[in-house]
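Archive transcription. Copying these from loose printouts into the bound notebook so they stop getting lost. Printout 1 of 2:
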Amino acid sequence: MTEFVICYLVAVNAVTFVIYGIDKLKALRGKWRLSESLLLLSAVLGGSVGAWLGMWLWHHKTLHKKFKYGIPLILMAHAVAFIYFLNRV
């Protein structure tokens, strides 16, 4: 079970990191963008580390309050849940 959770978290964070990069690239090129709902949902579903790294690396969505404050809050909640999960296993 623990291996599955770790594999899931690695995969969802990698996908989230990539979609933040894709959205930034689309923004720079003036193309159709990914929805903010998709970006936030990917973070909520376990990709908070990938979202935070994507925001930091590409300077993407850093001025939007729901991302600037929301992603770190989601990341903290995930950290607490992960620590709790590890202590229960």
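Printout 2 of 2:
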Amino acid sequence: MLIKKLHTFFSNTLFLFLICMPIPGWSIALLTESFELHIPWINYQNQTYAAVLKTEAGNTQAFQLLTTTGRESVDQRNMPASADNNLNIHIPLVSYQGELYRATMNADGNGYFQLTDAQPAHLADGRGTILSVMHRETRTAGQIRGNYPFAILAGVKMRFDVAVYTITYQTLDAFGNITSASGVVGVPVGIQTGAPLLSFQHGTVIHRDHAPSVNPAETGADIALFLMGSSGYLTLVPDYLGFGASGGLHPFMHAKTLAWSVIDLIRAVQSLASENHYPLNNQLFLAGYSEGGFATMAAQREIETFHADEFTITASAPMGGAYDLSGTMLQQLLSGDPLPRPFYFPYLLIAYNAIYGFSDDITRLLNAELAGEALALFDGQHDSDTINVALPTLSRDLLTADFLAVLESNIFHPVKAALENNDVYRWKPVSPMRLYHCAGDDRVPYANATIAHDFFIAIGADVSLQTLFLNSHTDCAIPALLSGKAWFDSVADLP
């Protein structure tokens, strides 16, 4: 049947890496694993609508139109789906299981829409191209030992001086267009044999001045750069989109752009090393904490799905990440308990709305009395502590009653579809992965790690979970990083 063939085709996305000329930006339609389809904008007879369609039980070959909602005019950044007078619909971008496609649906005259064509989306070329490199500082091994005495107590051997550089490079935005990004690179000085490459993904930031390329200490990026670098790893830390050389709002917890920013920085650093005759040994390690743990898992999935001919991951260590957005993290929001960090969901909601086009007016989702204030605070000039003080801690005070009721129900909503599309654990890792998470994590529940781990084990992946026994998400970061480093050291060919 067509839908079964389509499901197989959607899952077999080996061709997604194929690239072509840049395409205009647009909002992304969402297809769930139960085949509910949300199209944020459709132009039909000079009017603009949002639409929800779903396959009908017993008739899996066609979608039925469930709802249409009039929308305001689409701004010039967006290219909506279009429907001709015969109700044949062209969808420029649709996300299914987090992957991007273009699709065509044709009305069959009986009230259904047949999904007649689906192809991997075309992405821009030029990824990983270096735009600039600037030396920031060099610290001696002695200075590094003096800066991080806790590492000496943990047995970390800091042997090399480390030169740190800021690098700008090309990657993709959420819609597959080429864009600029930046990061920092810590280079061990004076090594004679090849160094392993390690990409460290940092935790959540909002203030632009807290990006690793601006202030590495704000995210713990300095610990990765200097401790790992002085141990012999060539270490890189991406800023992520929305920070450093990249403008606009950070696409918070958006799996694709996080993965792309990691992969393309790895490419840029490999090119830099080659151009400067810097020896690498072909080992690649991935690690990250909090949002960085999520980004690490997303990057491993992206590499092993689409770039296995280019990269082989030696080991991966996602730490303290929210891998289960549509389950564990949504339940945290809906629990009725005070939210430990109330800024998380508005941050995600605003970022996802810019990508998936849920609403013309965010106040229809956020409490109208605070929506304007919340939007204003996510301007890159306020930190998370400042925003948290301004937000209520209960979800019933943070969201509109109607939106909260829909999230609590089994009713389809595109926000729930977006969360599902950005879950990062439903796949089979190839390279060894070790999850690190504190059992008492007060911000990102431990269940994120157990659910991901149990899923991976059930499908036979080489994944383990190391549980740390601390009750603070913040306090868990350094012990997790040191534990992950010890594991990496046991398999790394260090100079």
